[in-house]
Amino acid sequence: RARHASSTRATMQRPFNRGASRRFTGKFDPSASGRRPTAAAPELLGGPAKGNFQAALERCRGDATKVIATLEKQNCDVQELVQTARSVLNTLSRVAARTANSAATDELSSALVYEEVEKLQVIVGEYLALLSDAEAKGKLTAQLNSSRGRRKFEQLNSSLLVEATILAELSEDIMMVHDKNYQKLPSFDDQPEEQVEIIDPEGYRMWVDQFGATTFMVDVNKVVQGIMKSLQVKLSTAERKILLQVLDPSNTGQISSLRWSEFLKGFGPMSHCLYNLQGLLSRPWFHGFLSRDDSTKLLEVEPQGTFLIRFSSTKPGSFSLAHTMDNTRVNHVIIHTRENGFAIREDNAQEKLFPSVSHLIEAYSSILIKPYSQTFPRQLWWHGDISGDEASQLLEGKKPGTFLIRFSATQRGCFASSYVDQHGVIEKGLIVGSPHGYQLSGKLFASMEEIVESLIAWGIFTEPYKNTTNEVNDKMRFKIVKEMLSTEQSYVRALDTLSNSLAKKFKENPKVAPADTATIFGNVDKLLAFHSAFLATLERTVAYWEPDDTAIGPHFVKVARDLPNAYAPYVNNYNASMACIDRLKGNKAFDEFVKRLLDEHLNTDAYQNTLQGYLIQPVQRIPRYILLLTDLIKHTSGAHSDYDALCEAKEAVKQAADALNESQRAVDNLEKVAECIKHIQGLDGEPSLAVIGRSLVKEGKLLPLENGHVRSKDYYVFLFNDLLLITKKRSDKKYSYKDKMQLRNVKVVSVPDQGALRNMFRLHGIDSELTVAADSPADKDEWMSAMKDVLAKLNPSGGGAAGAERTASFRSASRRGPS
Fold first, then answer.
1. Given this model, what pLDDT does residue 404 score?
2. How far from chain centre, in Å, is Cα 241?
3. Most CB within 10 Å of its CB: which of 11, 521, 617, 796?
């Protein structure tokens, strides 16, 4: 394989930048149209927090500092773990500094923000407890060096960074919306940036192009997508899962630039990495992510000369050779990755270099005689060197038939099964290894796979407890899904109150006009039916939740298709609803009537103690879906069956929100146009100007010129996105129609001052032109800028009159020939 010696560097990125992520702001929000701001966003913020945000954040920072200190004391490879933990600490420190200097104190003390800090506390607390317990027992270094032990640390590490990033994005969003001095907040970017080397130039370019030059850790699924895009290949689902397992053996869902660099050391250059990886995986002697202890126990009962190759426990581009010697001793040799091949150190400590692992094996064929042939260590149900008690802890609470296979803790060369029986009791079974196969209850089987298949056929086993299971992410996934369910239940209760109680009482009140009731409540009854059906789906999904198999993404994909049709009537009517309530407020009888209704449904949540608080909830529900789906994706590995559907669901819900924003914007524009032309007389013989798609861009005084003279100083012009309407001002907000000019195929040019005539510009059309004068140079610039924006959107290809002039000029040039 070709190797590249040149070195480039990628620096660690802080998980957010000066621009906020806009996790929920500005999406499907009445304030997006410039009217009726909803700054408090009460349904999203969830009311006041149950604790002190800054104090809880400080506890998280303290625990993160202790995690780093504990890891740095270990005499093993913990670079990635330490670097990730430092990134978490830097992120939390910056969040603490920026929020402490923000005026959005109340919003940052909301339940929504505090819940994110609580999630962080749980994860960092579990992480620190696990480290401290292993260190106290003198087992921490051993656990960090084993595949199984390291997996849990990496899962906690990754989950901690994800939650810190979510908190940072959320706090930035809230400050951007609620702190008017947001742009003036100090950045607090004073932490030194740690750097890692990415030796492979192609791999470095892919990383930088996809994620930026300062990104430390990303979603591993996006790296796989980046590889496919860069190499212009399409991987099958099975191939993608294999690549994900190699890049992310601990199933964290994340990959650092450091791990990506190590991967390319073993399988680069990037243009050949898939080919090189496929070649290695097809070798009979390669057994993936076995630990040193597992390799020893597998080989110690095998004949002399039996060998296997496995990945390094900590670096996916490095390998380890294990082989049996005399007296059943098992020798382990590190295979170092070098820029131009693979190297081992012989007894004389000299390094010997080989172009590939296969060449290395061939060179030592006298002692590497027979590859270890059993394939069960590659199976997801194989858990290797764990004790019976550890197996029972993993299986506790799992459904009947869940199983795993491991080494026997008491008998050399034997294995054990642990499984949950039909009564929920965890049972164990001994599997005896022999030269002819494996014995279970006196019956001989040719392979371990045959035993598992037979036990499944007999109904004893149903599904494996996978060795890739990420308990940390599973807990967070279920927590987020339960939050989806609980917020949907609350939302449906609010819709039920609106439709079956409040709206009903409004209809029964003879003092409230039926038209006002219809305007205030819109199609809330249709939304209740829509979300009641969706709630039933969510309840069924959660009731039968299985971490590895249950998919919630497809349900959101399905519901997202119907969101625009379901919500458009309500969203488009929302501002009219608020205006209607504003008009009726102040009437003593109306105010007392509303207060009596709300008192019947008194709720401790502030946003449900006003009529507007109930009515805004549908407007804010879709942004909450986007937020929850975003968080769920971050805790779902790329290999999970739900990952692709969740990504599709998030994009579908975003598109629905965009469509609703656009629908609302069109209605708002139509209302503005209608309000505008209502004050213009003389339009009776003209086609209606209030049509969908037309919007008012600018209005003001412009003076048309005719034969070099100003017609009149009473002219007032309305610029729409497709035409110019010329009127004369008769009185305050009263105008008379004079003329109009369609703006398609029109060009705007500045006209030089001529004596007393100043600040002029001209509109050139195919059949007409119009010269106007503005009040001042600044006014002229504003009008011309607005005109050019309109014309650019109407004529994106530069066509029209201007385009015709350019075409004629090119034709003339071609006739003249070369000069």
1. 96
2. 20
3. 521
